Amino acid sequence: MTQITQAFAYADDLFGFPRFPDNVREASRFPMKNGPSLFVPDRDDAYVFRKDHVRIIQFWAVGAEKNILLQGETGTGKTSLIEQVAARLQWPTFTVGCHGGLEFQELIGRVTLQPDGSTGWADGPLIAAMRNGGIFLLDEMNFLKPEVAGGLNTVLQATSYTVPETGETVWAHPDFRIAATGNAVDGVGKGAYRGTQTPNIALLSRFSLGIRVSYMSIQDEQKMIEAKAGGIAPSVSAYLCELADMVRKSHAEGALKAPMSPRETISCARRLTAYSGNLTGDDAVQAQCNSMANALEMTFLFRWAPEERQEFLRAATSVAKRLALPIVLE
After folding, report:
1. What angle do CA 315, 243, 283 make, to 5 degrees?
2. What is the CATH number of domain 8-212?
3. In this structure, are strands 109-113 and 119-123 parallel, antiparallel, or unpaired?
4. Which of 61, 274, 322, 323 is the most buried (most CB within 10 A)?
5. pTM score > 0.85 for this model?
6. 265 by DSSP, 3-state: which?
7. d(C-alpha 124, C-alpha 130), whole Å
8. What share of the chain is helix, strand, coil (3-state, %, to 5)?
9. Distance of CA 182 to the CA centre of its chain
10. For residue 229, what pLDDT band results from cuts at 50, 70 and 90?
11. Distance CA 81, CA 68 (A)
12. How far apart are CA 136 and CA 128, in angstroms?
């Protein structure tokens, strides 16, 4: 009998960390899937991994735990973490954006019309992941209706599922994994996320592995911005990160209506580089500083009420003064 050898790679090679010492490197193995798949997420080489996240993800990737729950504020990178791990491990990922109208049957599949005019069964994302050995990713799980969440209770600990419409029993592939993300799963700050449901204890107990995802450090966010917005001046990217950190803290204290997400800092940086064009050095810094008000306005301030917008601009101006940048926003 031919023995099947599991391919693997080390965490430092996979996730961009400095090489680990040999005495601990062997403990940092991650299993690799064989060959490319249409359902493997695109790799983002600018993504910055955190070691504390990777340590927890390893338990899930090797199968010590099959289910993992990520909770945290919007924009902290919960979904991206799962997708970028999957991209590096070549793991097919079947993502469902949860919402109040989602029905359990959509996760399982349904009988549909085939190209030849006949009818046949089509797997939903849950069964596709279970059958093929992929990740079933429930994005924003706490938007699910209670009856749908209840239907998941059995599936989350099952090794098989019998399709009622066909009678087929689908056995879970050894590489079948479930990941879920959610805002305010612990109930803190729930008022900021309209439409969310409080997951019941039975559902949450199926997730015995989890990560509380917070915003990345100022240094990591600056590294990511500069990788995604080529041409941004380092002093300007540092300003955006300091500003985002200030906004997030003010939001947590209730002083501002919303945080500033990494998605918004990246978008703002890209617009600033468009304003500075081919300029370099001090000329680029000056052009990007002069354009900051316009970039912030078109990126997210256009959604804010006038009084909160003015409060934001006053605070943003104070950050510019502290960093000695010629930015005028008020």
Report:
1. 105
2. 3.40.50.300
3. antiparallel
4. 61
5. yes
6. helix
7. 10
8. 45, 15, 40
9. 10
10. very high
11. 12
12. 8
Structure tokens at 9: 């790679």
| Amino acid symbol at 320 | A
- Pull the structure tokens for residue 210: 């989890």
From CA 158, how far away is CA 152, in angstroms rounded?
A: 10
Residue 4: other Cβ atoms inside 10 A: 6
Q: Is the pLDDT of residue 244 over 90?
A: yes
Spatial contact of 33 and 92, defined as CB atoms under 8 Å apart: yes
Letter string b/e over residues 293-329, b meaning 16 or more CB atoms within 10 A of that residue's CB: bebbeebbbeebeeeebebbbebbbebbeeeebebeb
20 contacts 58 by C-beta, under 8 angstroms: no
Alpha helix (H) residue ranges in 47-103: 51-61, 78-89
Cβ neighbours for 202, distance < 8 A, ≥ 6 positions apart: 150, 153
Spatial CA neighbour of 15 closest among 73, 66, 56:
56
Task: Please give the Cα distance from 64 to 276 (Å, whole number).
Answer: 50
Q: For the chain, which residues make up each domain, given as ranges?
A: 8-212, 218-322
86-107: per-residue pLDDT in tens?
999 999 999 999 988 999 999 9
CA–CA distance, 209 with 122 (Å, rounded to integer): 31
- 68 bridge partner residues: 179
Q: Which helix (H) or strand (E) holds 139?
A: strand 135-139
